[in-house]
Amino acid sequence: MNGTGGPDVKRRTFLAASAAIPLVDLACKSQKVEFTFDGDLIGPSVDLGHAARDGDLPAPSSFEPIDVVIVGGGIAGLSAAWRLKGAGFEDFTLLELESGVGGTARSGRNGVSAYPLAAHYVVAPTRETVPMIRLLEEAGVIEGYDAKDEPIFGEEHLVRSPEERIFAVGQWWEGLYLHAGESPEDIRQYKAFFDEVDRWVLWRDAKGHRAFAVPRSKGSDDAEVRALDTMSFKDWLDARGLDSKRLRWLMDYACRDDYGARPETTSAWAGIYYFAARKSHPKEETRPVLTWPEGNGFLVNHLYERCKEQVRTGIAVTRITTENGKVKVLAWDAVQRCALGFAAKRVIFAGSMIMAGRVIPELARARGRAFFQEFLPSSWIVSNLTLRERPKEHFFSMAWDNVIRDGKGLGYVVDTHQSLRDHGPTVWTFYHALAGADIRSDWERLYSVSWRDCVRFILDDLRIAHPDLESCISRIDVMRWAHAMIRPRPHFMWSDVLEKARVPFQNIHFAHSDLSGFALFEEAQDHGLRAAEEVLQEFRKTFATWR
Amino acid sequence: MDDLEVLDTRSSQPLKASLLFISVFIIAACGLVYELVAGTLASYLLGDSVMQFSTVIGVYLSAMGLGSYLSKHIHKGLARRFVDLELAVALVGGFSAPILFLSFARTHAFRPSLYGIVVAIGVLVGLEIPLLMRILRHQVRFKDLIAQVLTLDYIGALAASLLFPLLLMPKLGLVRTSLAFGMLNAIVGLWSTYLLQSQIGPTFGLRLRSAVVLVFLAAGVIGANRFTLAAEEEIFTDEIVYAKDSPYQRIVLTRGRGSFQLFLNGNLQFSSADEYRYHEALVHPAFAVKPHAQRVLVCGGGDGLAVREILKHPEVKEVVLVDLDPLVTELATKMPLLRELNGGSLLDPRVKVINADAMVWIAERKGEPPFDIAIVDFPDPNTYAVGKLFTTRFYKLLKRQLAPDGVASIQCTSPLMARKSFWCIDATVEAAGFQARPYHLAVPSFSVWGFVLASPAPFDIPRHTLPNLRHLSDESMASMFVFPKDMDRVPVEVNRLDNQVLVHLYAEEWNRWS
Ligand SMILES: Cc1cc2nc3c(=O)[nH]c(=O)nc-3n(C[C@H](O)[C@H](O)[C@H](O)COP(=O)(O)OP(=O)(O)OC[C@H]3O[C@@H](n4cnc5c(N)ncnc54)[C@H](O)[C@@H]3O)c2cc1C
Asked: Which of A42, A79, A94, A104 to mutate to test the pocket of ligand 1 (most atoms within 8 A of CB)?
């Protein structure tokens, strides 16, 4: 399926937008350098997105009656469709504004390899994460179950060893945390932190729930757990005297990598979630990781195959209103250049909360501005570098995830790692979270950078570890993700706002990772399933829950 | 403390600080080059580059730390000490490569000399920057001093790390690189006697010493050619007839005492004196299980020697050989020495040569007829990129390319030298759904060598082989399948793509012997 992919996302020039705002760390003021390679600056379709927002489009000639409309084909929307299909429910359509489904889990492909455009892995689930087990079994990733009834994953889907390496003091080292050269105090603090994590791994509330579960809805809502949300992760670490530079680097990296935030702007609840939710028992280092050359595009493709008759892409939903119990969905078909209308009994809104506030006027009025301003997502730059050959290296061999400790970005993933290619051409995916405290200025920054600015930024980072990289590059495509990932701020993870956002509004049900307060595949899936099951219940279908 | 030092009275005559900063750049580059030389040499000579580089760098960095610490014990005559220090670095660093080559070839103390030299260079290099900063501290404001010295230090290191793989290694080679950078250190020493004249006092003795050191090193550079070959030959014990770096490995052919040898990355692949034992044992037992085999796959084995044995079976119609390195298969077809040994096997019309990563190739081969026999002859698993070829995943992919009653024969390193590694491969083959029958034989130029015979279908230990082989006979075949106590099965973990335990086991076990 090419429909999920970057190649048909057209090049956009956003430069004209806004008088260039100075870029503190993205732009270098140096002279114009001509690169020997080409590439595109791509991004989600803003003009369609804007059409959805501004909505002074012609009215549709008629309203097609339908049971359910799903708005948005990210993981949440696709999971809702997957669930409806699973219940034999067919009278629905899924409308996605991009030319392919997947949202932030979309992927692309070129002559060298498939590659992710954003989300690139999921943590291998235990039996407890029921919907993931179902999905992975369906997709052929689970081969069987062991004596303890835990899943056995196909070797080709588990990340191939070596998994991670880090570039520091002039060379690559195995793993993400640099143990070489630790002081006794570093060692003590590292242990102290992970002992605390293990305490949370073992913690159970009165009902026997884990403190941190995947998805979070299966975890505990005990006061002790919720109390963690009242402070930032930084304050939490400070309060425990955990100030080892190395440990702090790891914590900062974890926050940027998973949440696009810093320890200062991350809820302590989310900071610990990152570590504790991924361990099933203290002895386990961390859960293994499942990944594919196309990243989570692999799972997107599977879900899409399940419901492709219902999926319509290139269609922006511009307005949703309710009239006499019917939900009227107005949409704009960018290809046919015509307006569409649906009269649905129920709608599953699987776009972001910001988008919900824009296209559902009654919701915007009912909840008020301040409500939507709580859902602040951070921006990301994801770049795919196509290399005609690999740079020369001497030290620890290339891993799947390659992190440069003193870089500004998060490092790069080798997309050919899972396809076992250790020589010759490859594609790398470079990640950078704009994790500034002021999210709005990050958005503005993102929209005023040029391809050249981004490429310079990326190369400056990668050159630390690969001085001769430039001569190996044949192409660099840069994907700008504004509003990419909700930020798990303190006081937000257990807020009334978040709770209220999950409640249906006038026959509109909500499903998006935003509703968890942080973006992970399992969260998006959980909300998709919940919304779909809410709808099934409304239609009085009998079903056993998949959650 | 340092801040107080800035308050010291300035010396009467300002130094040429900016010129001294150039020295920082040069000595930084030299320091990194010695480290890279030692790391490269160790991985050439001992194999397992991950291990060698990590330990060399670890030792070097900590020795630098020690040097920096020791610098506080130098109180007087900083400038003179600095010149002496440069000359010492010049000698130890400059001669490091030749000394290490010699110690590998002539002594049994390569590791002690390697780490001894790495520590010595590390300590000396660690002293350099602190001394120089203290010399300069009266000339430059402290914050500028730190900024400039550290900047140049890093840039120097960057320059060296770029030059080393791109220019120095290919153009100069290890020995001349280390000698040439020794000369640079000596020149910095000599030059400093001019720049720091005001602080040094009498300079004649220092300059004379610098000149002597320079002459020594220059003589080394001139003699390096003869020396390198002599040293490499000492290592390989025989005359080198061919040496070349392909994008994948260093290929060396040596000749002497009536035979010749092929080395990949310093690891012996075969000696013409006894390779027949190895290749007969690799190929014919599989045919003994499946005598009428027609389609044969060879993974690795670009030297064409296994194919030579395969073609002794007249019913074979097609042989597909998949080897990563085009340079190896080209040598096997073009170099007379090799072509004679393999009997021009790769030129036989039944043989098709494919240069590809065997794992990627078998993963992508679909819808084509299965092979009756697969001969799996990869190098030993000393890197992750080779280690993947010994995983359950590889064997499962291989099984898909085999007929239901097909047979694979797999080279599995030495059950004597690397017992756990050997049994790890055996367990891995079984875990992939094969019936596995391990066997072994002595190949004098290697050691006792091990193989696994594997088939998706049950099979008995083969009894009959071709007549007229040089080593293998019906009697000797049976004995290969009996394991003496010191090589017998040990319990081990299965090698999977997501754990690659074998690479670690292998490095551990073989390191004991080198
Ligand atoms: C750079 C990056 C890396 C990430 N890496 C990982 C990872 O490795 N693992 C992981 O688990 N998670 C990762 N995530 C998080 C990932 O985004 C979530 O796991 C999940 O994919 C979110 O899915 P969603 O359906 O909630 O939202 P989205 O992906 O935002 O999907 C929403 C969809 O709705 C569509 N839409 C919105 N408005 C409209 C409209 N008006 N009309 C029609 N369609 C509309 C959008 O186009 C989009 O396709 C990453 C995120 C980013 C940004």
From this structure: A104
Inter-residue contact B395 to B429 (CB < 8 Å)? yes
**Is A350 contained in some domain?**
yes
Identify the band that residue A16 occupies on the pLDDT scale cut at 50, 70 and 90: very low
Report pLDDT for A337.
86
Closest protein CA for atom 7 of ligand 1: A119
Secondary element (H or E) of residue A56:
none
Contact flag A160-B165 (C-beta cutoff 8 Å): no
Interface of B to A at Cβ within 8 Å reads 32, 36, 39-40, 49-50, 53-54, 57-58, 61, 157-158, 161-162, 165-166, 247-248, 324, 357, 359-360, 363, 383-385, 388, 391-393, 396, 496-500
Cα of B156 to ligand 1 centre, how many Å?
45
Asked whether the beta carbons of residue B357 and residue A419 sit closer than 8 angstroms, the reply is no
- Hey, is A343 helix, strand or coil? strand
- Write down the mean pLDDT value for chain A: 90
**Pairing between β-strand A426-434 and β-strand A411-414 as defined by DSSP bridges:** antiparallel
Quick one: CA torsion of A376, A131, A101, A415, rounded to 10 degrees?
A: 90
Residue A72 CA to ligand 1 centre (angstroms): 9
d(CA A183, CA B494): 35
Pairwise pLDDT comparison (B427 vs B25), residue with the higher score = B427
3-class secondary-structure state, position A219:
coil
CATH class of B13-227: mainly alpha
- In the reported structure, the alpha carbon of residue A309 is separated from the centroid of ligand 1 by a whole-number distance in angstroms of 21
* pLDDT score recorded for residue A63: 94
Could you tell me if residue A123 is inside a domain? Answer: no
Q: What fold, for B273-511? A: Rossmann fold (3.40.50)
**Distances, alpha carbon B482 to alpha carbons B208, B419, B439, B461, in Å:** 70, 15, 7, 11
The residue segments making up the domain with residue A525 are 46-106+295-369+489-538
Q: How far apart are CA A261 and CA A492, in angstroms?
A: 14
Average pLDDT over every residue of A18-34: 40
- Dihedral of the CA atoms A148, A151, A156, A157 (nearest 10)? -140
Q: Express each pLDDT in B114-157 by its tens digit.
A: 999 999 999 999 998 898 888 888 777 888 888 888 888 888 88
Give chain B's count of helices (H) and strands (E).
20, 11
Structurally, chain A folds into a number of domains equal to 1
Q: What would the mean pLDDT of B292-306 be, rounded to a whole number? A: 97
Q: Which numbered atom of ligand 1 lies nearest the CA of A355?
A: 38
In this structure, are residues A510 and A356 in contact, taking their beta carbons and an 8 Å threshold?
A: yes
Which pLDDT score is estimated for B2? 33
Q: How far is CA B477 from the centre of its chain?
A: 35
Is residue A464 assigned to a domain? no
Q: What is the pLDDT of residue A49?
A: 63
Pocket of ligand 1 (CB under 6 A): A 52, 71-77, 95-98, 103-105, 118-122, 296, 316-317, 350-352, 355, 359, 380, 382, 481, 484-485, 512-513, 519-521, 524
Q: How far apart are CA B146 and CA A407, in angstroms?
A: 22
Residue ranges per structural domain of chain B? 13-227, 232-269, 273-511
Pairing of strands A171-174, A164-168: antiparallel
Q: Is the pLDDT of residue B195 over 90?
A: no
Element holding A200 (H helix, E strand): helix A184-202
CB-closest option in B248, B360, B392 to A155: B392
Q: CATH number, domain at A334?
A: 3.50.50.60
Tell me whether residue A513 is in a domain.
yes
Which ligand 1 atom minimizes the distance to the CA of A380? 1
Q: Would you state the pLDDT for residue B149?
A: 86
